[in-house]
Amino acid sequence: MKFDDIVPWGRSFDEYIRMFSLSDADLHSAILGCGDGPASFNAKLTRRGGNCVSVDPIYALSRQQIRQRIDDVFTDVMRQVREERNQFDWRDLGTPERLAEIRMSAMQTFLEDFDEGRDSSRYSVGALPELAFEDAKFDLALCSHVLFLYSNVLDHQMHINSIKALCRVAREARVYPLTDLNGGISPYLDNVIADLSEQGYKLSLVDVEYRVQKQATQMLRVSALG
Q: b/e map of 34-69 (b: 16 or more CB within 10 Å)?
């Protein structure tokens, strides 16, 4: 992992609730978060007495290194947001400045929790499709802003292998968003659904309340039959 390639961008607990349509029952289950990065979901769920493990290659860095990288990239990321603001739905967010506040607050919460969380194995170094957990360890696996989003570098087979890995370690997997970096629906989505269905997986597209990218209005739910 190259330090200069990392772009930390953490979502909030409330965003996770809406991205993945998480119910109270879901929040009381054993949850795996893949690609969580500096999101605040793990920290806040743990405070509520929840059970969550997050996996991301960024956790190989120290808290100070992650903090530095956030500072290094934040201005440039927000510049891109402003330049591409027509791709966003601003009804909930309001303004780019409000989005910046939400992101920085979430990442600060993560940073305050990181050392304790890593010491207690809530933050684990790893990346799809290799998940170092036993079968069916979790009830629910959440994959945020990795699969489908990076369709320019993750190919069809990578998506297949990754979703199967999520379903190996969890009873159900949920993936959001289904759009790529250009804001359109990933070109892999239909074929991934078709191939996994043929292999015996149960898949469904579910509308979510979360609104940031205009076309990112659904998540993918996947479970292995039997």
A: bbbbbbbbbbbbbeeebebbbbbebbebeeeebbeb
SS3 category, 110: helix
Cα gap 138→30, rounded to integer Å: 5
Angle among Cα 177, 38, 181 to the nearest 5 degrees reads: 30
**Tokens representing residue 54 in the block:** 């997050």
What's the domain count of the chain?
1
CATH number at residue 204: 3.40.50.150
Distance CA 106, CA 14 (A): 10
Q: Is the pLDDT of residue 6 over 80?
A: no
DSSP secondary structure string, 13-44?
HHHHHHHTT--HHHHTSEEEEES-TT-SHHHH
Q: pLDDT digits over 174-198, tens only?
A: 999 999 998 899 999 999 999 999 9
The answer to whether the Cα torsion of 52, 159, 208, 6 is positive or negative is positive
Q: How far apart are CA 67 and CA 71, in angstroms?
A: 6
Q: What is the pLDDT of residues 89-108, one digit of tens each?
A: 998 888 999 999 999 999 99
Which residue type, as a one-letter code, is found at position 44?
K
**Adjacency order of strands within the sheet including 201-207:** 123-124, 51-55, 30-34, 138-144, 170-176, 218-224, 201-207
